[in-house]
Design a protein that fits this description.
Length: 353
């Protein structure tokens, strides 16, 4: 009898909690910025937040230091109609996106704001910060979400994208998510939004002690200067595989990308062989892309690579092996030697204007 009474009361409490949570849904977006602008991936996170509920107020959290942070905050205030508030944490502690100070910041903001959801994108930024912040808040994050069916029901890929799993979150607030930006495209924003905008507020960092910095230290940032578009958000991606045989031969891929105004990608085998840096890797352990056109040269189509690009709108594959798995997902395929095909393309394609 006593057990039944306890279970009934727990059920009532759970029902009241669920009802309250659905009525008071609010989302905190962990936004990335660079050069005074919000990154496109963060706008996809805002689009994902719009799927949680119709009246879901969205707050963007920006952290950093200097004038570029303030410029990014001003642009964030008018970046999307769903954004109701921009929170700015201005401190040298956040000059670089290290996991320890960012996790402490999220904990601080969550304790003050009481958000029902916290969302980051499934890039290196979100993968680095979200698990540590979730541990501090004693919740379990839901990762790699590709579809949102309600405040607590999500769809995420498993088995390298070969199956989709429906997950229902039953834990305490906040529900912490990482979303694939390629699954939440940002619709065109009306120009009328620029006349208004969300409020911008400074985060009180007085209670953030020096211990929040943690043991890790920023050493340096190594990146290649290029005019090519970012791999994660490019409309066209040209990818090369191990069949290119050397870093010198991989320059053919780079020349083709320049002519097409495309981003350059690579398979894990090409990266491991030292043809290109890790930041160009596409696949399960690299970047997830979904461009309008994906061109794969000398890519066999291993399951780990397909997991990172099979959502592309149009896939073109060139491989001399007619039985290569890449042809099973390609919209257009050519069985041929890439050392003959690429030079011919370079010769016939006009120069990019």
């Amino acid at each position: 009898m006593a057990c039944r009474f306890i279970l009934q009361n727990l059920s009532k409490r759970h029902l009241l909690h669920s009802t309250f949570a659905s009525r008071s849904a609010s989302t905190l977006i962990l936004a990335e910025h660079e050069g005074g602008s919000i990154k496109a991936q963060s706008l996809s996170a805002v689009a994902a937040a719009s799927s949680i509920s119709g009246d879901n107020p969205v707050s963007l959290l920006l952290a950093g230091s200097g004038s570029s942070l303030q410029q990014a905050a001003e642009k964030a205030a008018t970046c999307h109609p769903s954004v109701s508030q921009v929170l700015v944490a201005d401190s040298d502690k956040f000059a670089h996106p290290l996991a320890e100070p960012w996790a402490k910041l999220i904990q601080l903001v969550q304790l003050k704001g009481g958000y029902s959801h916290v969302i980051a994108t499934s890039g290196s930024f979100g993968k680095n910060i979200l698990p540590r912040a979730a541990a501090l808040l004693d919740v379990s994050p839901v990762t790699d979400v590709v579809e949102i069916n309600g405040p607590h029901q999500f769809i995420r890929p498993i088995y390298a994208g070969n199956a989709l799993c429906t997950v229902r979150y039953t834990g305490a607030n906040p529900c912490m998510l990482s979303v694939r930006s390629t699954s939440f495209p940002v619709p065109p924003i009306s120009g009328d939004l620029k006349s208004g905008g969300a409020s911008i507020s400074e985060v009180d960092l007085s209670t953030l002690d020096e211990d929040s910095i943690g043991k890790s230290r920023f050493i340096k940032l190594s990146s290649e200067e290029t005019d090519r578009p970012d791999l994660g958000s490019a409309r066209v991606v040209v990818t090369g595989g191990r069949a290119l045989k050397s870093a010198d031969n991989f320059k053919m891929i780079e020349k083709l990308a320049e002519k097409l105004g495309a981003a350059v990608g690579a398979t894990r085998a090409a990266v491991d062989a030292g043809f290109v840096p890790n930041e160009l890797q596409v696949g399960q352990t690299g970047k997830i892309v979904a461009p309008e056109l994906y061109m794969a040269f000398g890519v066999s189509g291993a399951i780990q690579h397909l997991a990172g690009m099979k959502d592309s709108k149009v896939i073109v594959a060139v491989n001399k092996d007619a039985d290569a798995p890449i042809f099973q997902v390609a919209d257009y395929g050519l069985v041929g030697d890439l050392f003959e095909v690429i030079p011919e393309l370079l010769e016939k394609l006009p120069e990019k204007k």
